[in-house]
Amino acid sequence: MRIGYVQYNPSFGEVDRNIKTAVDLIGSVRADLLVLPELCMTGYLITSRHEIADLAEEIPGGKTTEALAELARKRSCFLVAGLAERSGDNLYNSAVLVGPEGYIGHYRKLHLFFEENLWFTPGDGDLPVFDLGTTRVGIMICFDWIFPEATRTLALKGAQVVCHPANLVLPFCQDAMKTRCLENRVFAVTANRTGVEERGGKSLSYTGMSQITGPEGEIIHRCGGEDVKVVVEKIDPVRAENKAINEYNDLFRDRRPEYYAMLAKKRSNGND
Amino acid sequence: MRIGYVQYNPSFGEVDRNIKTAVDLIGSVRADLLVLPELCMTGYLITSRHEIADLAEEIPGGKTTEALAELARKRSCFLVAGLAERSGDNLYNSAVLVGPEGYIGHYRKLHLFFEENLWFTPGDGDLPVFDLGTTRVGIMICFDWIFPEATRTLALKGAQVVCHPANLVLPFCQDAMKTRCLENRVFAVTANRTGVEERGGKSLSYTGMSQITGPEGEIIHRCGGEDVKVVVEKIDPVRAENKAINEYNDLFRDRRPEYYAMLAKKRSNGND
């Protein structure tokens, strides 16, 4: 199957323009699955809750999800894209999955980064894995990468390809994704944005370098830091089914969960 | 405090000679904590269970543990070293911790690599953390690195420094330890061996490049691939207490264990 990413530089608040940018970039590209960046139609450097509340949309039903679904229908592909979600009084940093038949599902970022904590409610649903027929895809968003439990959870739930919309400003993630894919034997598509946002006296520079990573930790493709482009690579998702690394070791079978203290401390819900 | 590693090339089966090599290398080095490689007094490329059964020792009480304890007493330091353990009918790939007062504790490798599965029993105890007064140290061995749960468990249990005896033959671990330390905000000392072992028609080349890694994922020191030496670096273990990476994010507080599927599948004890 052909998987890839769309790396570009959204303009803050200009949803229609950003949708057109993404649609134009994707153009006539042939792909089965494309990942777009985090908050890819609103921009990222939010300066007030009011501001992002005005831009956030319902999922499904909002303008962005509708536009993405229309694009997925026309291109006969699946799209994963980050967007600001409004649900009742809550705002979420979410990612939606759409396909040729329309809306499929979405994920609300579990681990909010930095000032996202001022605007968004932390995710209150599971890390999801969707069976698309040709492959099983999981979704996580940006900062989720630093918690090994996120990718592990997706892989244990059967994800072959981890879709990873991002707005990365630190230099660690791209290399760390080699470890994430190696330890879980999965593919990942990290779709990062480019450019600099300057708003309200603040500034953020995004690192680009979107990356398609393979189950042996190999970088299948890493984009330039400032390129605006779509990159598609052909992969065999079945490779992610094989957790064996030699005749004696299978990375999932060899786990010893009875000795892991993963749930033992620092539970955010206090239910120790 | 001063932490470091001893990188050298043990000769298979020559326990007395290997002990002397380690003692000579450590010489008059001033350190608070030194880590030696996996199976550092027996060699690694085992060709029969009988062979390693003859070389394995009880912990505590065996010749190697006694020699290490004597060295720790003379040098007024703590030592972590990998050795083959015999306990009843079982053999374990273990690591012992000794200090100026003698034997403190040991760990039995939970995740056996490749043909280790032919000779050793998988570890049947916890990933341990020991409070040495000046610092809290955790122990894991070699291939444990690829399971993010191992380092995570040690960090959640309070380890500030992860002692990591290794006999690495693949090229992935050293870079991955940057991610392990970054995601857990801990120090790690990966003590690898050097050289080539050729026995029974088989051959293994060890990659050296022992590494001291810091809680921001920084490589404090990485050894050459073939150097035989002791390296000691001064660190402040208290840095590992701070899991906050900015005013909004604390990597332990931000965990969302209620959404992690870490225990949900592939339990090796079949208690799903």
Task: Tell me the distance between the termini of chain A.
Answer: 43 Å
Strand order of the largest sheet of chain A: 5-4-3-2-1-14
List segments of chain A where confidence is low: pLDDT < 50 over at least 5 consecutive residues: 265-272
> Mean of the pLDDT scores of chain A?
95
CATH class of chain A, please?
Alpha Beta
Sum up the overall morphology of chain A in one term. Answer: globular
Question: How would you characterize the overall build of this protein?
Answer:
Two copies of one chain form a homodimer. The first copy, chain A, has 272 residues and is α/β, with parallel strands linked by helices. Chain A has one domain (2-245): Carbon-nitrogen hydrolase (Nitrilase/N-carbamoyl-D-aminoacid amidohydrolase, 4-Layer Sandwich), CATH 3.60.110. Chain A is 21% helix and 27% strand. Chain A has six helices and 14 strands. Chain A has helices spanning 15-26, 49-55, 63-75, 116-119, 148-156, 173-184; strands at residues 2-7, 33-35, 78-87, 90-99, 102-108, 129-131, 136-139, 161-165, 187-191, 196-199, 202-205, 211-213, 219-222, 229-234. Chain A has a six-stranded mixed beta sheet. A six-stranded mixed beta sheet of chain A has the order 6-7-8-9-12-13, with helices on one face. In chain A, a hairpin with a 2-residue loop joins β10 and β11. The interface between A and B is large, with 56 and 56 residues.
